[in-house]
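Async update (no meeting this week)

Hi team, since we skipped the sync, here's where things stand on the single-chain job. The sequence we agreed to prioritize is pasted below, unchanged from the tracker. I ran it this morning and attached the output directly underneath so nobody has to dig for it. Comments welcome in thread, and please keep replies under the output.
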Amino acid sequence: MQTEQTISTDNQINRKTAFSSRYATSPNEVKGMNTEQLRENFLIENVFVADQFRWVLSFFDRYLTGGIMPVDGPVTLDTPDQLKAQYFLERRELGIINVGGSGRVVADGVAYDLDYKEALYIGQGTRDVQFISYDSESPAKFYLNSTPATHAYPTRKVSREDAEVVELGTLGTSNHRTINKLIVNSVLPTCQLQMGMTELKTGSVWNTMPAHTHDRRMEVYFYFEVPEGQAVCHFMGQPQETRHIWMQNEQAVISPNWSIHSGAGTSNYTFIWGMAGENLDYGDMDFCAITDLK
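Output:
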């Protein structure tokens, strides 16, 4: 179930922020959902709209997923009423990965240039955050994840060279992929937010297989670089009671902590994973044998 409202802002660009909430659901509820209900509860269809922040709050770990695509000029991060905060990052941390043209993020007066697939972590307590595209014809697309925070860690840019890189899978099992750990505790300190990017090799389509759950954390997947005319089938649900959601390019999906989160595309693609929860142990997974999935 979701609720949505539009919030006025006082940004330099006179736009509005779209904010919706998705309530937490149990495995028993999901078992009875039809296609429309699954998509309504878990799929985030429109992440990027010109000059407009779009936020979806999941009540799983109060995870915020959003995007901003500045076109007509700088856009300043506003504070939705639902946060009940003086400013957005009063009690939150923020992760950003640019999936568009070159851009700049200015955090409390310090500028960080982000090229394609570069990341930025902004710590709790940062009051002013501004987003800028260098070319309105090829605007930056800042993909945003935010989680509650209890400590102020330093803001830091993470380039592709700074990432912890792991190569997994094989072409023979259609899941040869490169995992780029960007905003993780082995690269920089965070309260609970973790983000990274997995790139599938040509000829591979499966991600995160064998599938797993982790009761200690929830996740959000954002699929991009999906070629025109192609799609990704995202699998969710308990291992013995799976469901699927067909997804298009630049869409995101919420994964509860009790659910598997895996996908297969009609072509290779890239996806960003974001996590929040009790721990920062990337390897904390409860694996399910492929042959046990139902």
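Quick observations from my side:
The first strand starts at residue 2 and ends at 8.
The chain has two helices and 25 strands.
Reply here if anything looks off.
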